[in-house]
Amino acid sequence: MRELISNASDAIDKLYFRSLTDSAVKLTKDDFKIELTVDKANRTLTIEDNGIGMTREELEKNLGTIARSGSMDFKAENQAEGIDIIGQFGVGFYSAFMVASRVTVTSRAFGEEEAFQWESRGAEGYTITPAEKAEAGTKVTLVLKEDTTGENGAEGENYSRFLEEYTLSDIVKKYSDYVRYPIRMERTKSRQKPKPEDAGEDYTPEYESYTEVETVNSMVPLWRRDKKDVTAEEYNEFYKQKFMDYTDPARVITTRTEGTATYNALLFVPGRAPYDYYTREYEKGLQLYASGVLIMEKCADLLPDHFSFIKGIVDSQDLSLNISREMLQKDSQLRLIRTSLEKKIKSELSAMKNNEREKYEEFFKHFGRQLKFGCYEGYGAHSELLKDLLLFYSAKEKKMVTLEEYTAAMPEEQKYIYYASGDSADRLAKLPAAELVLDKGYDLLLLTEDVDEFCLQILRKYGEKDKEKEFKNVSGGDLGLESEEEKKAAEAESEAAKPLFEAMEKALEGKVKAVRLSTRLKSHPVCLSSEGPLSIEMEKVLSAMPNPDGPAPKSEKVLEVNGSHPVFEVLKAANEAGDADKLNRYASLLYNQALLIEGLPIEDPVAYAQAVCELMK
Ligand code: ADP
Ligand code: MG
Predict the structure, then answer these.
(1) Which atom from ligand 1 is nearest to the alpha carbon of 322?
(2) Which of 244, 328, 332, 462 is deepest in the core (most CB within 10 A)?
(3) Is 191 helix (H, G, I), strand (E, B) or coil?
(4) SS in 3 state form for 489-542?
(5) CA of 303 to the centre of ligand 1 (A)
(6) Which of 118-122, 300-304, 525-529, 545-549 has the least mean pLDDT?
(7) Which ligand is the nearest neighbour of the Cα of 140?
(8) Residue 60 has what DSSP assignment?
(9) How far apart are CA 48 and CA 38, in angstroms?
(10) Of the residues 7, 34, 141, which should be mutated to test ligand 1's pocket, given the most ligand atoms within 8 Å of the CB?
């Protein structure tokens, strides 16, 4: 149906274009149509057009060739093995033989007096005989195959369904809705009979059925219409109906490109994430049309993963109707379209971010996670494209900011882009190290999603060339906040406490990499920081995931001690008194406390509880 209707539409196109310059064509645009008729008794389905038609030679050349060509021989030879080349590639006109045992084409070419009839039962060949036809155009009649029953009573092929009105109208709506000419067929309808004059009180209305010829397709594809001629309502309705969503899209993207890749696209950024969006069940893809005819429901190759939430339609004149899925994957045209769509989507999202910030933040709530994954994926292969679309929560501004906004607001001397990572923004803002950064007048990004830190780690730096700033986790390493003097003073103090820290390191051997004097603690006695590429938060994320190859990697932890906390004096005294037992116990207690504060599990909760009780005695 799809193939035959598109042929009819092509034939009308040809005559229509001719009508623009040739006054012999008496038809105007509104006269053109494609008609479908069924004859149940004779099991025929007819598709008729009033297009350019075919001469005898054309019938022979256009329809005759395949019947003799290699592909039909191939079909005949391979039928035993069940290889159906027509089914595989849907070779245009010949796909009629998928459902028909006999096909008759009666055609009269425009400007010719004679008509001819081409007839074939498929592989055996064809005949051409003179015929009668009043007007130019082509009439293709399919005699449908008999229905089959499958093995063991399973359902076989039901060809009769192509004689049903609703099957036909469904197919037309699905595959040929945007064919430019009306596709008309007779529809059976029901109406109330007029109420008789003498109807009594108890009259019940009677109904009768009647038929009416109706146009089944809607003809003008929305994406071919000028954006200014389409209302927002129309776009929204189209989106909701086509993509089965009940919320309006957040943004409508239209594009029309000519040149290397000629296509029209109508894309939508959904207003919310589908319930299965972040699961394996979700399938990305755009509907792909070739000149208004649907060729693929969900073409995944048109969308990169990081924009997998986009819905929409791509219509290209450069694609063949009969392209198979495997061929599509290798199609260079398709790759060009994909690249240009990716650019377009990026620029539309940027525009939304810059001009409709509230809307963008709402969008980001739903799909920001996917953009962050996209940044991280493939060792950051797409991070350049995506980094400026990201938003993070700013502790200072108390709202979502872009990396660009963060760096633009940085004081001259600020060395790093600071962030804290954990599961609640409230808790993060209260971290002693976070307070230190904020007290300096620096901003701090609060990361609460598991993917956040991985994403920043891949980016590593952000900023204009030569002025790039590294990202810095406030609970890791040197924060670069102190002046030279402060640093010197801290070093001296640290040096003095060296014997104590060595003793504690020994007590916590295998658990921490080092014990150090902290520069980030205010009221707490201890905290954990990390060294190396893996932060404590990342360790948590990794160990929460399935780890088939043994335990997840661990971060390198440093136990930091607050030099101005009374506990520090107690530790120093114990070490100076040579009370190794006390020092070991206290070191272990403090280490476990630090784990708890970080939200990490402690190894032996029972021993910890007992040790605390000991202290209370
Ligand atoms: P394609 O449409 O890709 O060219 P088809 O196998 O569908 O391949 O059709 C072969 C040719 O037969 C068409 O190119 C066209 O010239 C001719 N043809 C098919 N159907 C019609 C029709 N309804 N009216 C006029 N010509 C037709
Ligand atoms: Mg065709």
Answers:
(1) 3
(2) 462
(3) strand
(4) HHHHHHHHCHHHHHHHHHHCCCCCCEEEECCCCCCCCEEEEEECCCCHHHHHHH
(5) 32
(6) 545-549
(7) 1
(8) I
(9) 11
(10) 7
Closest Cα to atom 14 of ligand 1: 62
Number of H helices, E strands in the chain: 21, 22
Comparing 41-55, 57-71, 258-272, 483-497, the range with the smallest average pLDDT is 57-71
Find the 65 Cα to ligand 2 centroid distance in Å: 14
Average pLDDT, the chain: 88
For residue 7, the ligand 1 atom closest to its alpha carbon is: 20
Give dist(CA 117, CA 223) in Å, integer. 38
pLDDT above 70 covers a percentage of the chain that reads 94
Of 416, 359, 356, 350, residue with least CA distance to 385? 350
Query: CA dihedral defined by 159, 160, 165, 168, rounded to 10 degrees?
Result: 0
Count other Cβ atoms within 10 Å, centred on residue 338: 19
d(CA 374, CA 376): 5
Separation of 124 CA from ligand 1 center, angstroms? 20
Closest C-alpha residue for ligand 1 atom 23:
8
Q: Which of 136, 182, 139 is nearest to 25 (CA)?
A: 136
Residue 71 pLDDT > 70: no
Q: Which two tokens stand for residue 589?
A: 């207690």
What beta strand segments (E) does 21-164 contain?
A: 34-39, 44-49, 100-108, 115-120, 126-131, 137-144
